[in-house]
Design a protein that fits this description.
Keywords: Copper, Disulfide bond, Membrane, Metal-binding, Transmembrane, Transmembrane helix
Strand order of the largest sheet: 5-4-3-8-9
Family: Belongs to the SCO1/2 family.
GO molecular function, one term: metal ion binding
Number of helices: 7
CATH architecture: 3-Layer(aba) Sandwich
Organism: Pelovirga terrestris
Structural class: alpha+beta
Radius of gyration: 21 Å
CATH topology: Glutaredoxin
Number of domains: 1
Distance between the termini: 49 Å
InterPro entries: SCO1/SenC (IPR003782), Thioredoxin-like_sf (IPR036249), Thioredoxin_domain (IPR013766)
Largest sheet: 5 strands, mixed
Number of strands: 11
CATH superfamily: Glutaredoxin
Helix content: 40-55%
Length: 224
């Protein structure tokens, strides 16, 4: 991982309209970068599908507070494939999510590798498939990597906090992880609520664990 490092904003890619775009012209606010390959039929689709579900649940404005860049790391993939993926996953949001806030890019191998290497995102081709991590990362407006998001599902509170960190230029800390644990997203009321059951359950387990450890070590001292 390359937390605190900057991605090279001078790199040029091709968007879903076939236009050449430079990262420096796209990244002017907190940006979630999602490396995938569009022909993937497994984890990439699961990741993007989950993102389509997560984005509408956030209480942030796409295109204003943040944006998303999905980049194919397969240099053979085409503009048509990027456009198809954009239509698919924008439709999956079931909202009027602005297309200009979710870019789908393709590019040449040299630029792809410069970007992924700068982020510590490594992959390799195996036959017609790719072996790669299921991960995304958040960068600030100046390209600084502030957080990695690992796994096929990104909860709304996790993405929201990462975007807020990027807006302030803060690198992810254990405190933000603790806050995510203590709060859950209420989809019906579109807000974050304190998860009393989770926190109290954890406190009880820790207390019981400490009590049993106390009894165990007290017993050993008496035997001695």
């Amino acid at each position: 991982m390359q937390l605190g490092e900057k991605i090279p904003l001078g790199l040029t890619f091709t968007d879903s309209n076939g236009q050449q775009v430079q990262l420096a012209d796209l990244i002017d606010r907190p940006t979630l970068i999602v490396p995938v390959f569009y022909n993937c039929r497994t984890v990439c689709n699961v990741l993007l599908g989950g993102l389509s579900s997560t984005l509408p649940k956030m209480r942030l404005t796409p295109g204003k507070d943040y944006q998303v860049i999905t980049l194919s790391f397969d240099p053979t993939e085409t503009v048509a494939m990027a456009a198809h993926s954009q239509r698919t996953f924008l439709t999956a949001t079931r909202t009027d999510f602005p297309p200009e806030a979710w870019h789908f890019l393709t590019g040449e191998q040299e630029n792809i590798l410069k970007l992924t290497d700068s982020a510590g995102y490594y992959f390799y081709q195996e036959g017609n498939d790719f072996v790669h991590p299921t991960a995304a990362f958040i960068v600030a407006a100046d390209g600084t990597i502030v957080r990695y998001l690992i796994g096929q599902s990104i909860p709304p509170i996790t993405l929201t906090m990462a975007i807020l960190e990027a807006a302030e230029g803060r690198i992810s800390t254990p405190i933000s992880k603790a806050l995510e644990f203590c709060f859950t997203y209420d989809a019906e009321n579109r807000r974050y609520v304190f998860n009393l059951l989770r926190v109290s359950g954890t406190v009880i387990l820790l207390t019981l664990g400490s009590f049993f450890l106390f009894l165990f070590f007290s017993g050993r001292k008496k035997k001695s």
